[in-house]
Amino acid sequence: MSSDVHYTLHHPKWYRRRVSVWWWLQKRSYAQFVLRELTSVFVAFFAVVSLWQLHALGEGPEAYAHFMARLKSPLFLALHGVTFLFVLFHSITWFNLAPTAIVVRLRGKRVPDFVIAGMNYLVWLVASAAVAWLLLRG
Amino acid sequence: MTGGKSPFLWTLFSAGGTVAALLFPIHLFLTGLAFPLGWLDAPSHESLQDLVRHPLARLYLFVLISLPLFHWAHRFRYTLYDGLSLKHLAPLIVVVCYGGALLGTAMVVYTLWNLP
Predict the structure, then answer these.
(1) At A136, is the secondary structure helix, strand, or coil?
(2) N or C: chain A end with fewer CB closer than 10 Å?
């Protein structure tokens, strides 16, 4: 056999339908799924705003007042309004999915889903009240 | 989906999702809407500084900001894979997402460390 035998770099092409970037608009449940996945962007946005707030707090009263004034701009109010809706959507979908992720058994019986979800909502209420109390007491 | 292969990353995703679900709505409502719009009186710089002097408050703020960033990193990674069909950019996406969360965490630690 001669030494210059080589394999051609042929690769068979599979048949693949191109999926449109907008595939998720075809069905309500798809859209809901994608909106839920997009909540993470808004979660990250508020985490960054909080980091910025913390930084301003450390810089002193003037920098902090400047930060608080920035939040009053229409741009930030609009952004925070939209972000609030997405974050709420995150909370609700997260708590409603919790029973699927956490299976609790009491005396060999599975605790019903609504009890687990209900506990989550209760903890949410208590945690929110605690945060509000800490930030609002005179 | 947001399944993922690493149980460690999944735990961070899950913990961050829980922290964000429980605590972000109230913080966002107060700081982002109620205080700027004058619905409620915002705490003064002085009282907030007193509050964050406590080590537990700093631990709280670390958890509040860092874990949701990892939640974002994990979920957004799969959003880009599936939603925008960008699976072929996987290494870049992984670096940007988890790298971003790590950078944010480092900044939180630095800021908290330097608070008076």
Answers:
(1) helix
(2) N
CATH architecture under which domain B7-113 falls: Up-down Bundle (1.20)
Question: What pLDDT score does B68 carry?
Answer: 98
DSSP 8-state assignment for residue A4: T
CATH number listed for the domain at residues A1-87: 1.20.1300.10
Residues in chain A closer than 8 A to B14 (CB atoms): 101
Domain edges within chain B: 7-113
Its ipTM equals 0.92
* Among candidates A43, A58, A127 on the partner chain, residue whose Cβ is nearest the Cβ of B72: A43
Going from N- to C-terminal start, the domains of chain A cover 1-87, 102-138
Per-residue pLDDT at A43 exceeds 90? yes
Per-residue tokens: A110: 């599975």
Residues forming beta bridges with residue A110, ordered by sequence position: A105
